[in-house]
Amino acid sequence: MADTVSGPDVRTILDAGGYRAALEWTARRAEAFVIPLAALVVGMVLFSLFILAVGKSPVQLYETMWRGGFGSWFSIQNSLSRGAPLLLAALCVALPARLGLVVIGGEGAIVLGGVAAAAIGVALNGAPSFLVILLMGVGALAAGGIWIGVVGALRHYRAVNETISSLLMAYIAIALMNHLVEGPLRDPASLNKPSTQPLADIYRVGNIPGMEVHWGLVVGILACVLSWLLMEKTRWGFAARIAGGNVRAAQVQGLAVGPLIAGFTALAGGFAGLAGMLEVAAVQGSANGSLAAGYGYTGILVAFLARHNPLAIIPVAILLGGIDASGGLIQRRMDLPDATVLVLQGMLFIVILFSETFYGRFKLFNPDLWQRGT
Amino acid sequence: METTDIGLWGVPLALLGGAIRVSTPFIFVSLGEAITERSGRINLGLEGTLVFGAMSAYAVAVITGSPWLGLVAAALAGLCFGLFHGWICKFPKVNDIAIGIALMLFGSGLAFFFGKPFIQPSAPDLPAIPFGAWSNIPQVQAALNVNVLFLIGAALAVFLWWAFRNTRVGLIVRVVGDSADAARAMGLNPNTVRLLATGVGGALAGIGGAYLSLYYPGSWTERISSGQGLMAVALVIFARWNPLGCFAAALLFGGAGALGPALQSVGVTQGYYLFYAAPYILTLIIMIATSSPSRTLAGAPGELSITK
User: Fold this and answer.
1) Which of residues 274-303 of A touch B (CB under 8 A)?
2) What is the fold of B2-290?
């Protein structure tokens, strides 16, 4: 188009070019928003059909879900609280994913992070609170980091499939927690629900001022932002993305792929461990079986919905936190099993993965394919 | 008391009996996964299929009173899950491993959704054959009380081993798994073959689930499966995609899973929960020992994403 125009009015051409550039810029980026949103809508429509098939009203269901998740300040705070651990659990999937690894055993890191934090908090009883909380965080980071870092190292140095090994490690972690909580670390006073000794009140993580939401939300959002900066703005992140695209190419470039993989998986596991520490210090007050509440598995869904973009994880985690939070209300109001939420999550997951096939298929999002000269 | 007569001999005996009991779902899931993986796809969703199979088998057995109808229902449900996985993975850029994870969550969620009313009632069990009737020691009788599904699984392993080598269908599955291009050159459609292979794999996993809810442990709860479906995937790799190897590995895993209860039966209670981790630890050790970064695994289907 540009080379055929030879008129004198340069200003109009520039303007037209600027308009076109803006249009192209928008079109290229729109794909990343339109396809996931469309997938979300399709998933919700499919779920409506499912709800119709079991003889309930989808309209009432979504209305209840909205009310339970986001309808009032109370429910919004509830959703944010549930979204907080999901932020960290999703990072445990998203960071390795950028390196081409599918790690699904974040649950194990959460559980061990929680146990480590509880053990430190009880052992250091009497020390200044900021120090103890700090050390609990460090301990949880280390426990989760080692657990998932081992998965990454095994993947690189021994070619052990990380998807399966991480899940096996999660089962081992849960067995280890049961052993510790029922044995060496058990509080003799916890009869029905074996737990570690409760943390002293000064070691508990409190709420954000003015909200009924604990500080874990801030920690989670910070972790997402930091992860995004790490991935997009640092040379390690750049190297990781190259290694994720093509391991051989990265090695030819002289990148230390092994330490890179071990480091990123350890960081990912550390974040999940932190989620466990927050569950203990802000919610439960001690480590017990409630740590294995499935945040690690919902985190997988969050990460895939966010297409492993740490910033996109923030809204997605809060959305799924809201869906989680509304489960109880759906159960009570509509006489549906609590697994209703799981069915919805599973459907969304499948549709989102299916939507991958549409990337790059639409001319609309690809200015290179637009008709020239029209 | 007769039970104390055999003393520590009770441990290997309980292990043997436990291995036979615990291994049966492993046998079916791993044989199913072996068929799927031989065709070049991996289905991690078998964990969800196992749970859904367990639920549907139990529900149908409760309603109809026949465990065999339950078994058929579980196989059909598994077939549907498998076919769905096989169908959706034919689209470009759809990742078979990720879809498997999604189906794992979806299958479990759906099973919990429909399974709620069936947690209370009790269903008829699948029959077992008392091979230990010759003995008058109760532990021997208990150990050799073998469920028919175990025997069917053993026969199936031998049949598949033979069929992969000697039949046209076996050859087609292997060709598709080793090279989709070669298969296309032969006039085969890799997607169709994989669709069917994943469907059959799902049906077998469903049968494995039926065994869980209809024989051992023999009831439907939301905690019925503890990763058997996933361990079976690891087990197939360890068995080098050989059905006979799958059978042997399943027995080994079953033995590891029976370790905790066997030791408990002779009074060892220390570290009880750690023994429950034995199958997972064993799987992990085996995976570490048999994987290598410098060579592809012997016998691995060339199209399999997990070994690429």
Assistant:
1) 297, 300-301
2) ABC transporter involved in vitamin B12 uptake, BtuC (1.10.3470)
Does B223 reach chain A within 8 Å, measured CB to CB?
Answer: no
The domain limits of chain A are: 89-319
Hey, which residues 241-280 in chain B have their CB within 8 Å of chain A? Answer: 271-274, 276-277, 280
Q: Using CA atoms, how far apart are residues B44 and A173, in angstroms rounded to an integer?
A: 21
A163 touches chain B (CB under 8 A): yes
CB-nearest partner of B112 from A163, A342, A354: A342
Q: Which residue of A has its CA nearest to B275?
A: A175
Is any Cβ of chain B less than 8 angstroms from the Cβ of A359? yes
What residues of chain B lie within 8 A of the CB of A176, using their CB? 273-274, 277
Closest CA to B41 of B70, B102, B83, B104: B83
Q: Tell me the pLDDT of chain A (374 aa) as tens digits.
A: 444 444 555 556 556 667 888 888 888 888 888 998 999 999 999 999 999 999 999 999 999 999 999 999 999 999 999 999 999 999 999 999 999 999 999 999 999 999 999 999 999 999 999 999 999 999 999 999 999 999 999 999 998 989 889 989 999 999 999 999 988 888 888 888 889 999 999 999 989 998 999 999 999 999 999 999 999 999 999 999 999 888 888 888 888 899 999 999 999 999 999 999 999 999 999 999 899 988 998 999 999 989 999 999 999 999 999 999 998 899 999 999 989 999 999 999 999 999 999 988 888 888 887 775 44
Q: Where are the domains of chain B?
A: 2-290
**Buried/exposed A352-369: b ≥16 CB within 10 Å, e otherwise:** bbbbbebeeeeeebeeee
DSSP string for residues in A120-173: HHHHTTTS-HHHHHHHHHHHHHHHHHHHHHHHHHHHHHH---HHHHHHHHHHHH
Annotate B41-75 with b (16+ C-beta within 10 A) or e (fewer).
Answer: bbbbbbbbbbbbbbbbbbbbbbeeeebbebbbbbb
B92 touches chain A (CB under 8 A): yes
B283 — contact with chain A (CB < 8 Å)? yes
Model confidence, pTM: 0.89
Among the partner residues B116, B233, B273, nearest to A179 by beta-carbon distance: B273
Q: Do B109 and A158 touch (CB under 8 A)?
A: no
